[in-house]
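User: Structure tokens for both sequences below?

Assistant:
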Amino acid sequence: MIYKDKTKPIQERAEHLLSLMTLEEKVGQLIQPFGWQTYEHIDGKIELTESFKKQVADGGVGSLYGVLRADPWTGVTLESGLSPRQGAEAVNEIQRYAIEHSRLGIPILIGEECSHGHMAIGATVFPVPLSLGSTWNVDLYREMCRAVALETRSQGGAVTYSPVLDVVRDPRWGRTEECFGEDAYLIGEMAVASVEGLQGSSLDSEDSVAATLKHFVGYGSSEGGRNAGPVHMGRRELLEVDLLPFRKAVEAGAASIMPAYNEIDGVPCTTNTELLDGVLRGEWGFDGMVITDCGAIDMLASGHDVAEDGRDAAVQAIEAGIDMEMSGEMFGKHLLDAVRSGRLAEAVVDQAANRVLTLKFKLGLFEQPYADPDKAEQVIGSAEHAQLARKIAGEGIVLLKNEDGVLPLSKSAGTIAVIGPNADVGYNQLGDYTSPQPRSKVTTVLGGIRSKLGAEPERVLYAPGCRIKGDSKEGFELALSCAEQADTVVMVVGGSSARDFGEGSIDLKTGASKVTGNAESDMDCGEGIDRLSLKLSGVQLELIQEIHKLGKPLIVVYINGRPITEPWIDEHADAIVEAWYPGQEGGHAIADVLFGDINPSGRLTISIPKDVGQLPVYYNGKRSRGKRYLETDSQPRYPFGYGLSYTEFKYENLSIGADSILPNGSAKVTVEVTNTGDRSGAEVVQMYVTDVASVVTRPAKELKGFRKVELAPGESRRVEFTVGAEELQYIGRDYKPVVEPGEFIIHVGSHVNETLSAKLIVREG
């Protein structure tokens, strides 16, 4: 049997296997049921469901989604869920049954969520992507992706639905936390690192998984910041901005891609032939698998309303280039009938099935479909990975304000009151797409500070004060009492993406959260939770204002999934620390920063406005967009690239190796950076480019390079960048990349609004 011969070329094996398959078996490869519905976990034993066995008998199952996932959508809890070993054993039971009870013995593709850690009980929970972006440390993120791939593959997961490469344009959008930020260049750098980290040197390695790029494309530019809303974007911006990170990741070898829920100029991405066939497969040469988002095909007939019914939607999707449907309902129900009735050519099904099989061969699933329970038990949630999570969380923390050097705190400086709804609620600091974890595994800010001060727990007082949401102030009295006894107050406030709330608050088709008035829900961020405001929810601001009246040094720590706009806090707090959702080690990392064991080096990848009325406020908007409103200017409160340190950095001697270059030439840009303070620290050196005059309008500045450098006190370093066609080009009038002759300004500095500048001329070619 050629398809079982691993010495044969993969494409030959896939074509041979396809030639042996019935139409039912081909369609079976294109569907992906929910994995948690394939088994029951009773008294520590795994029993496969009869419905799953029937699916195998009726033609097979191509893939399963979320076998190892646990959250309110799946109904899998800490008590009913699978340990790392049990998860691997469950995957093995599923694979063994599918292989031994199907005619051709085709293994199943196990797909899992892994945007900031393998979404399974016991797995390491790293900081959310918004925090990962804030590290500006591509190498560290790549290392994290290697760890995530190892944990996932050890338990049998072979493909992950990450990275998220959406460019954020309106942070009211609940999925802002899942993104790296607002800049396509930076996202592209992280995208390449993600593919390299997740996929490793070879997809068939025991520590590699296939990366799925999402959401293709424009998902972060939805109307009003509403999830899956329409996108109003011209073709040039689409090519130049939103498609850039995807192109970079495809060039890096990404194996899979997921179209977005949204429409662009009236065409849903799920059926956008121009994007899927023209750009992705045609221009970029992508030869991997395309899988829908959950329920996206159903939306074509009930949401977008571009299809008459489910069959029409399924046919439109597969003809546009979709290979697999996440959830499997529309493909499973309608493709067989569509082919037999002549509505759909079987060759289209063959093409999709071939791509699915090819990915399985590349992953080595025909040679090794089974997980290693011993290895899963060893590597998932390991101490080594926890240390990595702590390091990343520390590098992603952004110091926004530090009046009169109130930070870092001294470990011998009296009593500290740790107050706020996010001070000691571990699940609130993990972010969306996180399985529940044992309380002992997650270190909160309170836990981190107490650990830092060691044998003096009486020096750390605690009160939650209030919830994230709701108008109850019954906790104010205790919080004020704690603050009165303290020398310093650390307020830990922000938001929550924890999906631990009541029945009826989850979309059972897609898993997205639903906005509800449930008083027990503190969730104010995450998928499906979009907001009118960027202010703190509930009475958190009032709590801070009451405590401020006591006159104690006030440090505000934000734990949240989108920017917070609170002018009063910006003005009155002595220090402001933006930690985003920092993951399981977040409490330790925050304490490391507060007490100076880590010198903060995080920098913003998303602009924080003064007021929600300034939106959109992303830094690289067009120069023609105006400079002010009646009430204030259009500048954000904290600009892109901004972040403070406990030391100072000086920039000088910016130089460009050539005064002028040809359109296809390049020049070296160097700048001298000196640590002028008395502490070691890391600086993110950022390079921006301005095209002074162009045929097509351009942003005032665009990020085109960055380096993170560690400097000892008094140390200087020459930091070097290369400027060439990749950094100078834009999409011209003919929608092709062009480097236009003329004057460019190269800017290098600590953030977008604080740079040195030098001129570069591009000569006629």
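Moving on to the next sequence.
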Amino acid sequence: MKHVYKYIIGIGLAGTLAGCSLEEHNPGGATAEVVFSTENGINALVNSAYVNFASQFYGREDILMLTEGGTDLWINIANSGYGRQMTKYEELVATTGQIRNTWNRLYEIVNYCNAGLERIVDVSFTNEEEKNARIGELSFLRAYAYWHLVEQYGDIDLRTEETKTAVLTAQRSPATAFYDLMLSDLDVAIANLPVQPIPATDQGRATKKAAYGLKARVALTRVAYESSTSEKDKYYKIASDAAQYVINNQAELQVSLYDTPEEVFRPANNKNNKEAMFFITHSTINSLNPRPNDPNRLHIWFKAKYSAKAGMVVDLPYGADRNSKSGSMCFMPTRHLLELYDEEMDRRYGDWFREEYYLNVNSYTWTADDLAAFEKPVSMAGKTTLNRGDLALLFTKKKVSGEKRNLPYALVDIDDTYDGDRVSTNARFNVHFPALMKHDDPDLPEANSQAGSKDVIVMRLAEMYLIAAEAETLMSGGNKTLAKDMVNVLRERAAVPGKESDMLITESDLDVDFLLEERGRELCGEHIRWFDLKRTGKLYSYVQAYNKDITTMQPYHVNRPIPQQFLDVITNPQEFGQNDGY
């Protein structure tokens, strides 16, 4: 959205119980009852419900660590300790700041939505369609915030009314109650949201396709909380129907797949992405962002160390390189993630991961220090010269045999980056790896800037094919032929030209492990992996099997701790209780 405003909305739950006030601005001393009795006031309130998703979550590293970290796909560069509470489950306790902040900000969103939904019915709008749209947005955003809350924290406090005064007791509600509310909210959202935002220039608002998509995602997750086959099938069916509605009505909903994986995250397509179903906006006008100067810094969090090596310097095409030493933090892929791809037939790897760096200065002659850094022969010092455009660095997922140290460029292969299934202890190599390019931002104000302006796609059409496929595969009497076809749509798109038939699967390939592998190949780095592993009951086992640098994880880590600040404020902390294990 172009502009976001925040006004007093009463005392928020997070503020009441955890010391974080929502009273950011109170124009002219007006009360909430006065401000939110008008169309402009309600519009401001709805805008406020979006703010934390941009300023606190999507574009920031904390939510990335909570949604992609601590899984089978990512580990800290050089096995560093930054963010280890989330990425490695080390020292994850009730006082961890990111856990408290996430709890507070999500409950703030819930309270904005509760306030708006309570008040909007009695407010007159010039345009009734706009009023309906705002009802839909508030319902969508409440469901989206509660999905995050219940998946991260488990059975917690379910609130459907605005918190206006201090509430000093809290009661837990079962996860199923949250999901009942979410699905009800999403039906309201579907009934009220337009295909295009109102006004049309306010890109980033929830629309009808987003509501269908979230309904599919929420229903698929709800399966995990049911024990009987009939109840599981009920929610598989809801998930499949919602996902297929989007797939079968792409023209009406104004969404479609790109022809190639590369186009999905091509920076030129970011601000008008035809595959995106819901995205969090960040403005190219810095002053309009909730957090000026670093609105979206996802682009720095998946980078391998490339500058000050073999003559390379930081530049915009290769992106910010903040890893001046091995202890700096970025997400490096696990060996497991890299080996999920067969790059000979699956172009998603080549389209979304960078292996090659070409010299971006006029010329370079190998120095003794750089030769030592890549364990190359000292005899090359002062002799082998690279010119602008020559391959300077190659960090590859392949195993390279033969005289790989004698090449004119620096080569780090998969056996240099990893010792078996773990990150190498060799500091010369463990900062060099194939780097995810999905969040690249070549439009930074200057090289090495953190001030990215790209929108963050948090739901896209490809996920609908995967949801429909999973639901039809795992539902009793589901249509496995349809499931196979859904997966093959994405795999055929992902095929290296000429390898389309090699990429196609059969019904016999379909099971939960294959589907999780396919989701990893398609959606890695898109804020969804932790949720996928939790809802399928695979979080602990997959981390144990595929991310052996995470050594302290326990089964209870499927939930985060309840923030201690919250427990310290309420009067019934023992009754409410801490989550198991903490």
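User: Anything stand out in the second?

Assistant: Residues 161 and 497 are 54 Å apart (CA to CA).
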